[in-house]
Amino acid sequence: ASKLPCSGSDHPCPLQEVKESGQPVTVIHNHLDGDGNIRIIEVQSAPLYNSEGELYAAIEVTRDITERQKIEELLSENEKRLHHLAHHDSLTNLPNRREFRYNLYQEIARAQRYKSYGALMYIDLDNFKNINDSLGHSSGDELLKEIARRLQRTLREEDTIARLGGDEFVVLLEGLGEERARVVDKARELAEKVRSIFAEEFDLDGHQL
C-alpha cells in the first residue's frame, strides 16, 4: 500500500500508460487512509486527441471502490456457500446424489479417454431403522456422521464418497489402472478396507453398535 498514486510496479501510473499506448487504461491501487486503513482505489484514465489526431491530454477519474469490493466478495462467498449446500448432504457434508452423478459422468469420460478403469461401491447399512426406532433419530444421525468420517479416513483422497440419502452411501474409486485384473484386485482391497470400518464398534451415548 502507498499514499502515492504512482510508486513502482505495484502502482503503475495510468497517465504514463495512456501516453505510451494511446488507449484508455484502468488500474487498481491500494492506498492508506489517514487512519492507516487500506482503501481500494480504481483509477481510470482516457486519452484526448486534437483534430490532427495527436494526443494532447488525458482525463483521469478515481473512485473509492472499497465497499463495492467488500460487497462483491460477500456475494461471491454466499454464492459458493449456496452452491455447496445444493451439492452436499447437510448432515454428513459429503457430496449428495446430484454432485455424485456429476462426478460419475466426469470419471466415465476420463476413463474412456485414458483407457483406464474405476469402480463403484454401494453401501447400505443393515438394520439402520432399528437404531432410529430404539435410540432415536439423533443417534441415527450421529452414526451416519461417524460412518462418513471413517470412510473419509479410510479411502484415498481421489475417491468420491457420497450419501445418496437415508442409510445409503456410494463410493466412486477413480483411476485404479489400465489392467483389468489388477483393477479388480485393487477394488477388492479397497472394499475390504471399507468393511473394516464396521469392525470397530460405534459408541452412541453409551450404546455400542
Sum up the structure in keywords.
209 residues, alpha+beta, three-stranded antiparallel sheet, elongated
Radius of gyration: 29 Å
Euclidean distance between termini CA atoms: 59 Å
Structural class: alpha+beta
Query: Strand order of the main beta sheet, please?
Result: 1-2-3
Given as residue ranges, the uncertain stretches (5+ residues, pLDDT < 50) are none
- What fraction, in percent, of the residue positions are helical? 40-55%
Total helical segments: 6
The proportion of residues in beta strands is 25-35%
Q: Write down the overall mean pLDDT.
A: 84
Biggest sheet record? 3 strands, antiparallel
Which H/E pattern describes the elements?
HEEEHHEHHEEHEE
Q: Any idea what the shape is?
A: elongated
Tell me the number of strands.
8
Describe this structure in words.
With 209 residues, this protein is an alpha+beta fold. Helix content is 44%, strand content 28%. It has six helices and eight strands; from the N terminus they run H-E-E-E-H-H-E-H-H-E-E-H-E-E. The chain has helices at residues 14-21, 66-87, 97-114, 128-135, 137-154, 180-196, and strands spanning 25-32, 38-49, 55-64, 117-124, 160-165, 168-177, 203-204, 207-208. The chain has a three-stranded antiparallel sheet, with helices on both faces. Helix 4 (128-135) crosses helix 5 (137-154). The longest helix is centred in the middle third of the chain and has 22 residues, at 66-87. The protein is elongated and about 85 Å long. The model has no long low-confidence stretch (mean pLDDT 84).
